[in-house]
């Protein structure tokens, strides 16, 4: 199985076997290597991985924002059945900010420092909806108010530097939501924010969960922030999806050693020191022939060094790319950090719900 588990609802976005590379002075960097994803209407999908795993490149490839050195070498992206790969710049401009909008990591560089924020929020409406300046300005005030900007009617005339970092990110979200897009891509939107403001932005994005009109792709390196906002989680490593499932499945029944490492690395408030995943990511100029995580996996076998594992089904909604799931594979001991976390997660899950209910699992589930 090389694809993610199928979904019952017709997807609003389909990414099929996407390969993206960048030309650099050192050679060709293979940033994305065979990613396949679907996004259902109203769904929030979190894409998680270390820096350089290919998650942001995948998102930028959707909108044709790879820059002059990036190229989609193969694969396809379809929005509501219409191909985006190979589309002209004119066709993509009709989609960007209208049907698919993106919130970037650094709001200070995403916003034009020379233009009042109200005009920046209203601009997509004037471009894509063709409404008057007065109507667009009124809509901008409503949008700014909806994301928690107080005194929006007055503050819309102010410039980005007159707002805090969290407020600037809220303004970026308001701009992205201006045209009521079918898809909102949030690329590391909380990375540069303190924990209090981060929580506020996450609450804002969580409010979109289950919306009939907007699906969300939430990109982050921090698995800990996705539990309350995502329906599904895709874990990326070295340009590939190594595990995908419902949020509950990823947190309570992870199958890939890299996912184990990410979960074990989450701070608990009780441990003396944080767990670290040993080793470093592979050189994407020369990716290894087998499992890219093998060099960092203490349970790796010879096949991991030689053959790249496909996504193997765990349940109808859950799959992982690890030879540990292959028939006849030896049992790998669950790291003690994961066992301890499972006990806490399950105890917490008895009181609350983490994401949707998981599908049935195989007999190779990881138990605490």
TrEMBL record:
Gene3D superfamilies named in the record: P-loop containing nucleotide triphosphate hydrolases
A Pfam family the protein falls into: oligo_HPY
Protein name (database record): ABC transporter ATP-binding protein
Gene source species: Serinibacter arcticus
NCBIfam families: oligo_HPY
Keywords associated with the record: ATP-binding, Cell membrane, Membrane, Nucleotide-binding, Transport
Lineage, highest ranks first: Bacteria, Bacillati, Actinomycetota, Actinomycetes, Micrococcales
GO biological process terms held by the UniProt record: peptide transport
Protein location: Cell membrane
A GO molecular function held by the record: ATP hydrolysis activity
Domain ABC transporter: 13-263
């Amino acid at each position: 199985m090389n694809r993610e588990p199928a979904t019952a609802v017709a997807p609003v976005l389909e990414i099929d076997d996407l390969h993206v590379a960048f030309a650099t002075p050192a050679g060709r960097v293979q940033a994305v290597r065979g990613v396949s994803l679907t996004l259902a209407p109203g769904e929030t999908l979190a894409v998680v991985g270390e820096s350089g795993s290919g998650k942001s490149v995948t998102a930028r490839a959707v909108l044709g924002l790879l820059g002059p050195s990036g190229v989609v070498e193969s694969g396809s992206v379809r929005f509501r059945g219409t191909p985006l790969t190979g589309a002209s710049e004119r066709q993509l401009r009709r989609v960007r900010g209208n049907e698919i909008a993106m919130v970037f990591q650094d709001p200070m560089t995403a916003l034009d420092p020379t233009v009042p924020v109200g005009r920046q929020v209203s601009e997509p409406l004037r471009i894509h909806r063709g409404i008057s300046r007065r109507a667009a300005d009124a809509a901008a005030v409503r949008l700014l108010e909806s994301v928690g900007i107080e005194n929006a009617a007055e503050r819309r005339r102010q410039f980005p530097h007159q707002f805090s970092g969290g407020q600037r990110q809220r303004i970026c979200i308001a701009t992205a939501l201006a045209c009521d897009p079918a898809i909102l891509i949030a690329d590391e939107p909380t990375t540069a924010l303190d924990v209090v403001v981060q929580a506020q932005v996450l609450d804002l994005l969580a409010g979109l969960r289950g919306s009939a009109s907007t699906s969300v792709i939430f990109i982050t390196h921090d698995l800990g922030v996705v539990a309350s906002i995502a329906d599904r989680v895709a874990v990326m490593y070295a340009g590939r999806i190594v595990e995908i499932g419902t949020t509950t499945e990823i947190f309570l029944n992870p199958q890939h050693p890299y996912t184990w490492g990410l979960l074990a690395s989450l701070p608990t408030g009780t441990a003396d020191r944080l767990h670290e995943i040993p080793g470093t990511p592979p050189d994407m100029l020369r990716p290894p022939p087998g499992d890219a995580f093998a060099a960092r996996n203490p349970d790796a076998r010879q096949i991991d060094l030689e053959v790249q594992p496909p996504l193997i089904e765990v349940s109808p909604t859950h799959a992982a790319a690890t030879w540990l799931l292959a028939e006849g594979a030896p049992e790998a001991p669950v790291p003690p950090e994961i066992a301890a976390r499972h006990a806490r997660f399950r105890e917490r899950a008895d009181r609350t719900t983490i994401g949707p209910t998981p599908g049935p699992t195989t007999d190779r589930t990881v138990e605490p």
